[in-house]
Specification:
The complex is a heterodimer.
Chain A lengths: L8 E6 L3 H4 L4 H9 L4 E7 L5 H13 L4 E6 L2 H14 L7 E5 L1 H5 L6 H19 L9 E3 L3 E5 L3 H12 L3 E5 L22 H14 L3 E4 L2 E9 L2 E8 L2 E7 L1 E4 L3 E3 L14 E3 H10 L7 E5 L19 H15 L4 E6 L9 H10 L3 E4 L7 E4 L5 E7 L4 E5 L3 E4 L3 E3 L3 H8 L26 E3 L9 H21 L1 E3 L5 E3 L9 H5 L5 E3 L5 E3 L9 H5 L5 E3 L4 H12 L3
Parallel strand pairs in A: 1-2, 1-3, 3-4, 6-7, 6-12, 7-8, 12-23, 14-21, 15-16, 15-21, 16-17
Antiparallel strand pairs in A: 5-24, 9-10, 10-11, 13-22, 18-19, 19-20, 25-28, 26-27
Chain B lengths: L3 E5 L3 H12 L3 E5 L14 E2 L4 E2 H14 L3 E4 L2 E9 L2 E8 L14 H5 L3 E3 L8 E3 L1 E2 L11 E2 L5 H5 L4 H5 L12 E7 L1 E4 L3 E3 L16 E3 H8 L20 E8 L15 H15 L4 E6 L9 H12 L2 E12 L6 E7 L4 E7 L1 E6 L1 E3 L2 H9 L26 E3 L9 H27 L1
Parallel strand pairs in B: 1-2, 1-13, 2-5, 13-23, 15-21, 16-17, 16-21, 17-18
Antiparallel strand pairs in B: 3-4, 6-7, 7-12, 8-9, 10-11, 14-22, 18-19, 19-20
Helix pairs in contact in B: 1-2, 1-10, 6-7, 7-8
Chain lengths: 566, 438
């Protein structure tokens, strides 16, 4: 490095009150730091992070013309941003700062070994000084974000997200593959816990979407291609057979879910008396259900299978759907017997337990079976259906003769999910649903910036849960659009073009889809998408990829400093 | 007219709502009753189904709130009065006296070391002790001390002043007064979280009488490395490692006759997580979960439960536990239960019982509802304007609700709803501006 000769490093060792100072001999570490190559100034501070400590740091940068700063204190997780800003305020690029953790990684864990802890603190400081000498200034480029969102899917989630974004004063392109908006709401009849039926609720949504000037709806449309990235997505859709190009700053995926058709299970498809819950909804909605005498509902049909390649998840909503429809049948045909065969009754949360109680009070029967002993369904020669089930609560096998069997089948990945996941370069989980950035704390983000997910495209959920998640996606997508720009990561990968053989390993490994081949066939990193995780650099067989701020030279300098070998 | 938002409650929901708003340029006042933000998630050891360390994934968000130029963190504070309407609420906030000047305190902990008064540590569910001058927990945000005047010798007896003598920053101020502050905000987001039902009212389980019957929040602190036992899984009666542990589900929840007929939604899966943690600590331990229905309804949860059964050997027993007896000598416990798969009465002897109590709405909700004119449901949750399509809205336009205080939910659902509340608040701001212009 050309600046190497001019490198002037300042080292600030923090006592952190007693946290470091009572274990590590701080003056000793300060004196040691002064002996290291390129260090022109070292001092101890009671609290480097206090306003007094930060003031001294900034003063020293000017007084000693420091061009690299090392603070030996606590964890960069909490304090690096603070020290970086102090460097910036003193006119130093913030990436010329290096933090040495001598608290969490030293004084706290070696509290009873003062002398050894002091030696270790020196080693840590030595490593950081060695790296600091090789640090280079970095920049965080900003890119513009168009205040325009593309929402894929026009069901409850997609319409809610669109309306919220539109009410935040962003323009919205709403893409729906069917000729009409509404999604599954079109097929449903009654919706617990509402007094209204699905049709009335749908009408309210449609009215709101139609009358909102910020929303432009594209029905009978699907996403074909996507180029670009956060701020400037270039999406090509097929609109009724015509290709159309749409720009968008952000994208919301709200493509919903399908319902499993239980082919070959419990005589479904063979006997007309065996239908799914969704088919029952449709019959109830159209008033086309012949009066049943004895209805049996079977839960967990093709769900919670616990087998390789099976549907192993619980579909969350089927028990509540069964309870709702059981009550509906009881209400419509009070003479009808309704029996629910279940494994675990998923009446979670505030409302469903009440619904469960209501069903029991309305004389809906519940029979519990074990996963290992599922019910059996046969048809007699005269067409009658027989259900045999082992009721675990009385430890008896029962034979029932229903005239209608309703199968509760899980929500599954919607058709086209796989293709869409490839087009948008966002992942699907093992369960087939879109896979978010972090299960716990980033439930509607994708790892790729600017693309969000909500509703049953994410996992099975109820309408209120889909609505809440749709608003969440509208908030998350709204952030970069409200700011009209995003700051991108400075610590990114860069490819030495001449060393790259175009093998494509990095492209496969990159979790953010940030790498592609350029026109010469060598890897090219999109700095906007790159998060600097380093997977590409580690996996490149030609060592053609360097991580900014974590170059091989910098990391080796640290290792060499402590191991004393090169 | 205001472009700011008030968020009430500094748990994960309040934190997420604040960050979403602040990151889009909206000024946020985040009010928290306790001296630190973090809420329940800060008390948990790990989170299901990924077994992420809870505080490790939460702390960066807490720090982000603290450092954010658009967030005014008002800890140890309460909302006293609310007037006005959506787009223009006037809110009076009371900041209680902490007797420590927060701008001077560096969080060094010297005062806590020197303070002679020990008080049961509420963050550790009373299992360990803190001092009369304390920080709620090690990663507290803001990292400043608070004096608890109910126990401080200076406030109770007029003596001591040790903390003042030793504080290197001269931050102790016994004369500090509560401060009142009035703010103007466009909307209000409520995220007050939950309380743990006290199982001592259920006599049959012996909680409060038998030392080795604990509840799940206590267990989280026992198994947590920063907790009162330093993360050593030991039972309270003798400090020995339990050879067997039984979790009892639905304690006070799903009750047909009691106060809380609803399902708390998270217990089946957190008990599974806690069982796995026991197996990680001591693989030989026998772990049982007694449950009515296994409700693993979230994303990846059923798979998590299946893994716990298959790979960790957790024993799931469909059961109605009727009562618990204690052996007075060994302090071991006998659980009498009806096995639902055989309808037989059985007895299981164990070293430690963990009760999974109903997680219930905060008592404070009643006061907040009165102050803001909000409807509560029959259990004390904030009532949604329309349960199906407007779960985040309340009966007062411009006041939104998220997290467990709206209805039982887990962390990802709380986080999603919190972001959702931020979207609703952003809509209110945008619409108010639009109306003002037109």
């Amino acid at each position: 490095m050309s600046e190497k000769t001019k490198c002037r490093i300042g080292v600030f060792v923090c006592y952190c009150g007693v946290n470091i100072g009572a274990v590590v001999n701080v003056p000793d570490v300060v004196e040691y730091a002064k002996t290291l190559t390129d260090v022109v100034h070292a001092e101890g501070n009671l609290y480097t992070c206090s306003s007094e400590g930060l003031g001294k740091l900034k003063e020293a940068i000017k007084k000693y013309e420091l061009n690299r700063v090392v603070v030996a204190s606590c964890t960069p997780r909490t304090h690096e941003p603070l020290f970086r800003s102090a460097c910036e305020e003193a006119g130093l690029n913030k990436y010329l700062f290096q933090m040495a953790n001598i608290r969490e990684q030293c004084s706290w864990v070696h509290a009873k070994e003062s002398q050894k802890a002091t030696e270790k603190a020196k080693e840590i400081v030595k490593m950081c000084v060695a790296k600091a000498a090789l640090l280079e200034p970095q920049s965080e480029p900003e890119i513009d974000v168009q205040p325009l969102a593309l929402v894929i899917g026009g069901g409850v989630a997609g319409m809610t997200a669109s309306l919220s974004l539109a009410n935040q004063c962003f323009k919205v392109h709403l893409i729906e593959k069917e000729p009409e908006l509404g999604g599954k709401l079109r097929e449903l009849y009654s919706l617990y816990p509402s007094e209204k039926d699905a049709g009335e609720i749908l009408e309210v949504y449609l009215q709101a979407v139609r009358s909102n000037p910020n929303i432009k709806t594209y029905t009978s449309s699907t996403v074909k291609r996507n180029e670009g990235f956060i701020g400037n997505f270039k999406v090509t859709i097929d609109n009724n057979g015509k290709e159309e190009n749409l720009d968008a700053g952000t994208i919301v995926v709200a493509t919903g879910a399908d319902v499993l058709k239980p082919k070959g299970m419990y005589l479904y498809g063979e006997n007309k008396g065996v239908i799914t819950q969704l088919e029952l909804e449709r019959l109830l909605k159209e008033g086309a259900l012949p009066e049943p005498k004895n209805v049996i509902m079977i839960q967990c049909v093709g769900a919670r299978e616990e087998k390789d390649g099976g549907i192993n998840y619980c579909s969350r909503i089927c028990c509540a759907v069964a309870l709702k429809n059981a009550l509906k049948i009881k209400e419509t045909y009070p003479e009808a017997e309704v029996t629910v065969l279940y494994r675990d009754m998923q009446a979670y949360g505030r409302e469903f337990e009440g619904q469960y109680k209501q069903a029991r009070e309305s004389f809906v029967q519940f029979i519990r079976f074990e996963k290992e002993e599922p019910p059996e369904v046969f048809s007699e020669e005269d067409g009658r259906i027989i259900v045999r089930v082992h009721d675990i609560s009385v430890n008896e096998t029962l034979e029932l003769q229903p005239d209608l069997i309703v199968l509760s089948t899980p929500l599954i990945q919607s058709e086209g999910s796989r293709e869409l996941s490839k087009i948008l370069k966002v992942p699907l989980g093992a369960d087939g649903f879109f896979f978010e950035a972090h299960v716990k704390l980033r439930p509607v983000d994708f790892a790729t910036d600017g693309i969000f997910v909500c509703g049953t495209a994410h996992s099975p959920k109820t309408i209120p849960e889909s609505v809440a998640q749709a608003y969440a996606a509208a908030s998350r997508a709204g952030i970069p659009m409200a700011l009209k720009r995003v700051t991108t990561e400075a610590i990114t990968a860069s490819v030495k073009g001449e060393a790259c053989t175009g093998c494509g390993t990095c492209i496969k490994m990159c979790p953010y889809s940030a790498i592609q081949k350029d026109e010469k066939g060598v890897a090219w990193v999109n700095d906007v998408l790159c998060k600097g995780c380093g997977v590409c650099a580690a996996s490149c067989p030609e060592k053609a990829i360097t991580m900014r701020h974590f170059s091989d030279a910098q990391v080796l300098a640290e290792a060499t400093a402590t191991l004393g070998v090169s | 007219m205001s472009n700011s938002v008030l968020v009430v409650g500094g748990g994960i929901a309040g934190i997420q709502a604040s960050l979403d708003l602040a990151n889009r340029g909206t000024k946020v006042y985040l009010v928290e009753k306790l001296p630190s933000i973090g809420g329940r998630m800060a008390q948990l050891d790990k989170t299901f189904p990924t077994l992420d360390c809870s505080i490790c994934i939460l702390a960066p968000k807490m720090i982000e709130c603290y450092r954010h130029p658009n967030i005014a963190l008002l800890t140890y504070s309460e909302v006293k009065e609310v007037g006005g309407k959506a787009g223009d609420f006037n809110v009076k906030i009371l900041k209680k006296a902490s007797y420590v000047e927060s701008e001077k305190c560096t969080g060094c902990g010297t005062c806590m070391e020197k303070c002679p008064v020990k008080v049961p540590n509420e963050f550790d569910m009373g299992l360990g002790n803190r001092k009369a001058v304390y920080m709620l927990f090690k990663q507290a945000v803001p990292l400043v001390a608070t004096i608890d005047p109910e126990h401080c010798l200076y406030f109770t007896k007029g003596v001591c002043r040790v903390c003042q003598k030793f504080c290197p920053s001269k931050a102790i101020n016994y004369e500090q007064q509560p401060e009142e502050k009035t703010i103007n905000v466009s909307s209000i987001i409520l995220a007050t979280g939950f309380d743990v039902f006290n199982p001592s009212t259920m006599n049959e389980y012996g909680y409060g009488r038998f030392k080795n019957v604990v509840h799940s929040m206590e267990f989280e602190r026992i198994i947590c490395a920063s907790g009162p036992t330093g993360g050593h899984l030991v039972r309270p009666s003798d400090g020995k490692e339990p050879k067997s542990v039984v979790f009892v589900q639905c304690v006070g929840s799903r009750s047909q006759h009691g106060e809380f007929p609803f399902c708390s939604s998270v217990c089946c899966v957190y008990a599974t997580k806690e069982s796995i943690l026991i197996k990680d600590h001591a693989p030989e331990t026998d772990v049982y979960i007694m449950f009515i229905d296994m409700r693993a309804v979230g994303k990846g949860f059923q798979e998590f439960v299946d893994r716990a059964r298959r790979e960790y050997g957790i024993k799931y027993v469909k059961a109605h536990p009727g009562g618990i007896n204690e052996d007075p000598l060994t302090k071991n416990l006998q659980i009498h239960y009806e096995e639902l798969s055989s309808s037989k009465m059985k007895v299981l002897e164990t070293d430690l019982v963990v009760l999974c109590p109903a997680l219930v709405p905060k008592e404070d909700n009643k006061v907040i509802a009165k102050t803001m004119g909000l409807d509560l449901d029959e259990y004390g949750f904030f009532k949604s304007w329309e349960p199906l399509t407007a779960p985040i809205d309340t009966n007062v336009p411009g006041i939104y609700v998220c997290g467990y205080c709206q209805s039982p939910k887990d962390i990802p659902e709380s986080v999603a709803q919190a972001s959702g509340a931020a979207a609703r608040a952003s809509e209110t701001i945008a619409q108010t501006i639009k109306e003002a212009i037109s």
